[in-house]
Design brief:
binds pyridoxal-5'-phosphate; seven-stranded mixed sheet; alpha/beta; single chain
């Protein structure tokens, strides 16, 4: 259809003119954080494989064994015939790790948030979403059709004020935030938000995609400052530190049963393949059994922040904010010329004027390479003198 192609072309041209057009680049990952792209071998600081588990032999062996026993695909949604026995094991392991009664595994983190929020919240209700929260929390709020208010980033007093003003007009209220912010690496003040939520009878949902396996001794953001009990809805993904794929919600038994009945992205989507579920279980074995590995991503991020002179990293994610999209792309190219992959993150993923290199540090990055990257960022990108 000519009008369809023209429509798409116009949209793409508009993105290109603002340096916001994205392209898929073939990337081969097979040797830790070393990747092959455009015919070059680069050390990646853009993967979320925080513990280096995507290629770990224990995960690969578990996945292969699961394929031998159960086949490749799951064949149907979980409520039909897709609920292979590995699911129950993964859910009880995640619930134990997170200190909740139960857990529900979804097809992905995005699917989890898109299903959880509308299963709990309806058009008469209220949702507060942190302004920097991940796109899928916003998607969930939109699908719920609720009154959705933007809460100032990590500002507990603002969430409190919004609830004081609006809470009484709605039967239910939800506070939704990232636990570790995906583009900034800072942690939400979950203990204080939990207290505000309790005061206003609101429910707190924390997205721990980047916390699990990295902060709170591997148990995630809810455990970084307290014992995790202030966060009744602990959502996360199996695609980052866990090294596999999928999403989850750890919560009370009744909430999880409600998800199995009402979360549309759970009910109407095919179950995860057995191999992926088996690999996720093997990853939890490692997270629970290897505290040194769990401690490394944050320690490595701090090697970088110390050397560049940035505030100490709070998680495995460190943003180097550049400003305009074009400048962020140029910084990324400069690092690529030096052998590093540091993908530029541009609006709308981050707010206008804050395009950045979003660096993620993993258990397997060599310190010498982190120091070389830090010196390049400091002298050639931020243009500040080297620390002696
Ligand atoms: C904070 C956050 N939540 C959710 C997701 C989505 O998870 P998934 O990739 O498993 O869909 C991501 C990233 O992908 C994320 O960064």
């Amino acid at each position: 259809m000519r009008s369809l192609d023209e429509f798409a072309r116009r949209k793409l041209d508009a993105l290109q003119s603002r340096d916001l057009k994205r392209v898929l680049a073939d990337t081969t990952r097979r040797d830790g954080m070393w990747v092959e792209r455009n015919g070059r071998r680069l050390l990646s600081f853009s993967c979320n494989d925080y513990l280096g588990l995507t290629q770990h032999p224990a995960l690969a062996a578990a996945a292969i064994e699961a394929i031998r026993r159960h086949g490749v695909g799951s064949g149907a949604s979980r409520l039909v015939t897709g609920n292979h026995p590995l699911y129950g094991e993964l859910e009880s392991r995640l619930a134990r790790l997170k200190g909740t009664e139960a857990c529900c595994v979804f097809g992905s983190g995005y699917l989890a948030n898109s299903g959880i929020v509308p299963a709990l919240i309806g058009p008469d209700d209220l949702v507060l979403v942190d302004e920097l929260a991940h796109a899928c929390l916003w998607a969930g709020a939109r699908l719920a059709g609720a009154t959705t208010l933007t809460s100032r980033h990590n500002t507990v007093a603002h969430a409190d004020a919004l609830l004081r003003e609006h809470r009484s007009r709605h039967p239910h209220a939800l506070i939704a935030t990232d636990g570790v912010f995906s583009m900034d690496g800072d942690l939400a003040p979950l203990a204080a938000l939990g207290a505000v939520a309790r005061r206003h009878d609101a429910w707190l949902l924390a997205d721990d995609a980047h916390g699990l396996g990295v902060v709170g001794a591997g148990r995630g953001a809810a455990f970084a400052s307290g014992d995790g009990t202030d966060v009744p809805l602990q959502m996360g993904t199996l695609s980052k530190a866990i090294g596999a794929y999928g999403g989850y919600l750890c919560a009370g038994r009744a909430v999880v049963e409600l998800m199995n009945n009402r979360a549309r992205t759970m009910v109407y989507s095919t179950a995860l393949p057995p191999a992926i579920v088996a690999a996720a279980i093997a990853a939890i074995d490692i997270i629970e059994g290897d505290p040194d590995r769990v401690a490394r991503p944050l320690a490595k991020a701090r090697v970088f922040t110390r050397r560049v002179g940035l505030p100490a990293a709070a998680s495995a994610i460190v943003p180097v904010v550049i400003g305009e999209a074009e400048a962020a792309l140029a910084a990324s190219r400069l690092l690529e010329d030096e052998g590093f992959l540091a993908v530029a993150i541009r609006p709308p993923t981050v707010p206008p004027g804050t395009a950045r290199l979003r660096l993620s540090f993993t258990a397997t990055h060599p310190d010498t390479e982190i120091e070389r990257l830090a010196d390049l960022v400091r002298t050639r990108i931020l243009r500040t003198p080297l620390v002696a």
